[in-house]
From TrEMBL:
Residues 1-22 form the signal peptide. Keywords: Signal. CDD domains: TroA_a (cd01148). Residues 54-334 form the Fe/B12 periplasmic-binding domain. The keyword Signal applies. It comes from Streptomyces kunmingensis. This is ABC transporter substrate-binding protein. Belongs to the bacterial solute-binding protein 8 family. The keyword Signal applies. InterPro entries: ABC_Transporter_SBP, ABC_transptr_periplasmic_BD.
Length: 334
């Protein structure tokens, strides 16, 4: 059962997670199962009395964090809307075949109970919502939760999200999951690999002009985009660009088109998901009169990344590599 303890500084919590036992623990180790583990999740110390065995995840990025740590055998299933695209050809297609797709809607208490879940891994607006399902509702039913760090609510308002740089959020969740499931070595190796890949792209971009980049998720009346606490912030910056909304202290949110026009981005990155295709989004941007004098639109500097690239997920380093190559090339998107 999950226990909340007084909050500790995030830096101290990160240090604690890095000083774990270090040995990889097999899933059938009964001693490991009964060992209580305490991590810091969204600024709160949380204790898990046992290692979870029937995890339900919500959405693609969260699900693939489990897959990246090879924790398919600890999962009861995943929830993922159908608009996240086909699972064929994805980096974890074999894991997707092994784990049950529980729902194409959203995670609910009923879904979790039917799956006999002992932990639900989701986040604010990644499954959890005050008007739908909250962690407290699951705790009341005896189900533990873990919150995606990208989604943590910050102190500025009750709704804005994000408490640390996005890649730090990715590494924090890998560290925490490594401790919770007793696979610290796997987590450390992944983090080391990811950091090396990102550093390589950063080195290639050193000294080059840094274009401003607008992340276009969706919306015609008002664009839905990302601030400094969502994954695109560092995907863009580490690739060699500057997020147009770097000063926005939130993760995913809506702004006005006038802001985009005034700031005049050099490049637009389209988030490919949903019922509107990337090509349809591109056509809208190119034909929308208020944007006609924006540099990225005039020069057709528009690049597409997948939804799973642009939320906190194991695909973030690859997204940085691909976007970095595009920004360095100076070539128009096809």
């Amino acid at each position: 059962m999950r226990k909340l303890l007084p909050a500790v500084p995030l830096g101290l919590a990160a240090a604690l997670t890095l000083t774990g036992c270090g040995a990889e623990v097999a899933s059938d180790n009964k001693t490991a199962k009964s060992q209580a583990v305490t991590v810091t999740n969204c600024g709160k110390k949380v204790t898990y009395d046992t290692r979870p065995e029937r995890v339900v995840t919500n959405d693609v990025g969260i699900t693939e964090l489990m897959f990246a740590l090879r924790l398919e055998n600890r999962m009861a299933g995943y929830v993922m809307p159908a608009d996240k695209g086909s699972l064929e050809g994805l980096p974890y297609k074999d894991a997707y075949k092994e784990v049950k797709w529980l729902s194409k809607d959203r995670v609910t208490k009923e879904v979790a109970l039917a799956a006999h879940a002992d932990l639900v891994f989701a986040g604010w607006n990644y499954g959890f919502n005050e008007n739908a399902l909250t962690p407290d509702e699951l705790h009341a039913s005896g189900i533990d939760t873990y919150l995606l760090t990208e989604s943590c609510r910050n102190a500025r308002t009750s709704t804005s999200r994000g408490i640390m740089p996005p890649l730090d959020a990715l590494y924090t969740d890998l560290e925490n999951l490594g401790r919770i499931f007793g696979v610290e070595d796997r987590a450390r190796k992944l983090i080391k690999q990811y950091k090396a890949r990102v550093a390589d792209v950063r080195a290639k971009a050193k000294g080059a002009k840094r274009p401003s980049v607008f992340l276009y998720d969706s919306g015609q009346d008002q664009p839905f985009t990302s601030g400094r606490y969502a994954a695109p912030e560092q995907i863009i910056s580490e690739a060699g660009g500057v997020n147009l909304l770097h000063d926005l202290k939130d993760s995913w949110t809506t702004i006005g088109w006038e802001t985009v026009v005034k700031r005049n981005p050099d490049v637009v990155v389209i988030n490919d998901y949903g019922s509107t295709s990337a090509e349809q989004k591109k056509k809208f941007l190119l034909s929308y009169p208020p944007l006609r004098n924006v540099s990225a639109i005039k020069h057709k500097r528009i690049y597409t990344l997948d939804y799973a690239d642009l939320v906190e997920s194991p695909r973030n380093p690859s997204a940085i590599e691909r976007l970095g190559a595009y920004l360095r090339s100076g070539a128009e998107a096809s």
